[in-house]
Amino acid sequence: MKSKRRFTVTPVFVFVSLMTAATTLAIAAAEEKGKPFTVPVAGMRLEPDVRNQVSGLALTVEDAGWPAITMLGNRYGTLGELAQLNAGSGLTPEPFQFGAVRGPAAGQLVDQQVNAVSNTLTFRNGKNESLKVTVTRLSPAILLEATGTEIELFGGADKPTPERNSVCPPPLGTIKPLRWATPSADGKVITGVLGDAPAPQLPLKNWQKQRVTAVSSLATEKTSEPPVDDLGQTWLLLWYGSGSSFLSSKIPAVLSGECYFPGNPLRMATVFQADVPFLLVFEKSPRSIELRQEGNTHRLVVTYPGTVGKVVMLPLFGHDVQAAETTEKWLQEFPAELKTRCDGWAKRLGDFPVNVKEEDTYDEKADQVTCTDRFEYINVRAEGEKTALVRPMLALGLQQKLPAVVTPQPVDLKYATQFGPLLAVPGNRCEWHLGGLGKYVNGQPILGPSNEKSAALERELSAEVEKILKAGHLAPWIMSIQAPWCPSYGTTYGKDPSEVLYFLSEFLPLLPEVQQATVRDYLAKEAAAYPPDTVLQLKSSEGVRREFSVIPVKWVHTYDWPLGKSAYGDEYYEDVPSLFRAYGVSRFYMSTRRQPPKELLEFWLKAKNESLLGRDWATLGWFWGKYAVRWGDSYLQYTPRAIHRDAAGLIGYLRLCRSSGEKGESDAWGQLARLMTFRFALVRYGQYLAESGLFQMPENPAAAKYLALSGNFSKAENHFEQVWEVNQHEVTMRSGASKIDNNWYGGFMFDPNGLSNQYVFSDLTPEVGRILANWGLKESVARYVKHYAEVQGVWYKSNADNEHLQCSERACTTASDSYQYFVAHAWIAGTAPEELEHYIDEPWVATGDYYFMHKLAETIKAYRGAKWEDRKE
Q1: How far apart are the C-alpha atoms of 796 and 532, rounded to whole Å?
Q2: Prediction pTM value
Q3: Which carries the bigger pLDDT value, residue 76 or residue 198?
Q4: In sequence order, which residues have a C-beta less than 8 Å from that of residue 850 and are 6 or more positions away?
Q5: Are strands 272-275 and 322-323 parallel, antiparallel or unpaired?
Q6: Inter-axis angle of helices 850-864 and 833-840, to 10 degrees?
Q7: Within 13 A of 576's CA, how many CA atoms are on the CB side?
Q8: 401 — alpha (psi -120 to 50), left (phi > 0) or beta?
Q9: Which of 160, 173, 162, 179 is nearest to 100 (CA)?
């Protein structure tokens, strides 16, 4: 049947290319390089060709013989910060390098002591003097503990760190924060400058050889050293001012476009000389703090009459870098609010957090999850104030009206990091509570009656299902995406044996009763022949092929090439079946009204426990490598997809428990609460940037006009940019809002798991979507999908061309793209059923297009109305 929503696309021809063999060999060779991080995930890898790093909430420590300190490190300009001149063409977002903390003579890393949130790295020199650096996910500061009599700050390196994209910053340790401030005995802040520094040669910002304007120095000719007698009770602030070589733009690349090169009017007109002030808190007062000149080298050295002891270093404003024009004025007048900020942090840093014990409980009657965090500290000095931080991504959610409660009531520290804002409660314990998840885990949608608008779609759905029943077992679906330089490139769908259990169970209530019985028999045969709880991948050589024109398998170099055993729990390479499969299994037992056997529950219990490993306390997500997939000689980690899969898997596991008469462990409920909180925060991440000051509207008229071509971003709610990846080092936003320089995925990247470039809603399931919708995200997601449609107007059409998406080497879109945006419309954005019907379009294959059938099913449900109710057993 044809309807007004349909149109026909000429099928894309498939070509055979000798490049297939060459690409296969290149990828196979790349397999020998590197692996994802392994547990203990807070540890440093120590591989020569890898950027070895350990990250806290604001700072990163790398091995440069002695510990080298950097900040940010975002590869794609999520926060807008920039580094130094790029050897090729312009500016690129790279880590700010603050030099090394070191003792006398050369050092080397000799030990790591790791727990779930912290890493204490021990460096030692030939004099047997040690320096311990504790980096923790519980604090934006780092803790130093030295046994020698002196320590050098912001110094040089004994060995280089890996190259970063041809960036050419000054040598490590040559640029130092020489401006200082500290309270005097009467409480008044005094300031000074440790020594002279040459004015930095800032990079070019356009092709006309115009340089970024450097701030004029306000320092007097006389240099001075800070008084040290009271530093064991007060604090020392160091900053760069006019001597800074750092640059920043408060415009993230997802708004300005991928291009950071000279000539981009939005990006380059907003670049300014930036500063990162450091607050230092000492266990005991030093004997001196001086800038020593040794030949052509200057060293910032802190000396003690005895051993150094403990020192805490904090970037005072987190990732909200300051304008050097502002900080330079502190030499003349130190703001009262800045002193208050320093006083408060000095007290908090008197006790340094190093560990946390987590406990989850679930109150079934109240339908409430409670997560309790108990913190452990190292005392730095007397009169410290134990402060428990709220997980930054949870804090981001709370500020964006997540329906959760933290007790005691937290205080906003006005401290922004790329992982979220910092909220704090006094003491060593805090709880957060989240309710209402049980309704979705234990519930099901109750449909309204069939009506005139739904009836035709119901008949069409029934006909599509009947094709499957007649065909029997279906082979995976091989799709060519026809990259011009490799025309046989493609992707594969349907290799997960739990997929058929999920989709047909989803369609079941919409089918005629006679057909429902046949479908249940079909599902039982599929589950018996291809059990999802085994290391099983469906083969293209088994079953009926789905495509209109069957493509020989050997012709298509699909993205499920031999990538090796990946840690990512997906349908392609799994050492054990992923937890995600438990969702389809649970739908099977619900739809066939069967009780899962005990051994099946035990199997998925192990999968659930495996999913709980490698979690990052701060982000509510995972350390890098937990869900990484290989592309060539690098790894990608699609955080939204991983959240959707694990959340669905936990829902499936808890349903299997309930069907077996079990309650399900509290840690499963706790992890589900974390993941849904995490996903909520990622939807609102762009809005957080706008409200926290990490984004600022450009003052330059030309830049403001250029930005306005993509939208009115003076309103925080219009910041619908979405996140690609979150790990302990960075938040990467690659799905952007720029209409001028489309940045949906930020350069040449394919998804090795067949999801192409779009990932924001991939593997979304009804419960996860409806939770997000009911938590108030409808408008945010509606803005996002509307913008995407403006960029890719044919997003919903089967086998549509891909020319609307820039930076792509594909000829056509993939089926998973149109499907995931469709369910985002249906489940989160609340799109009207009449509009949904328009987006159904044609099947992509002759038989077994579950994506197409699910579009039919969700439109039927929208026409009939559905109310989510608890499932009574």
Answers
A1: 30
A2: 0.92
A3: 198
A4: 494, 499, 500, 503
A5: antiparallel
A6: 160
A7: 11
A8: left
A9: 173
